[in-house]
Design goal:
95 residues; 4 helices
């Protein structure tokens, strides 16, 4: 369903709900974004996307902990667990 914004706005609430609820909007096979022709695959936006990263420190702790099992024959059987200890937070250390 390739609609312009004015065509989308002209739809009834029921028609919009149906379109969204049944996933009738085209999605990009690469990023999963809706209406790729107008958004993620639109050459006009080629340089408009901003890449940012964030760090998940829970995952970082898990990866550090699992390093000691590299090459271990039963590494696939290890069930990792990561627990938050608020007393080790930077803010707790400054007190």
């Amino acid at each position: 369903m390739n609609l312009t914004m004015s065509e989308w706005d002209a739809l009834s609430d029921d028609d919009r709900d149906w379109a969204l609820g049944t996933d009738q909007l085209a999605t990009c096979p690469a990023c999963g974004g809706h209406d790729p022709d107008r958004v993620c695959q639109n050459p006009d936006f080629q340089r408009a996307w901003i890449f940012e990263t964030r760090t998940c420190y829970r995952t970082a702790a898990l990866l550090r902990g699992m390093k000691k099992f590299e090459g271990h024959p039963e590494a696939g059987a290890v069930i990792p667990s990561v627990t938050l200890d608020p007393s080790r937070a930077k803010s707790a250390q400054r007190r």
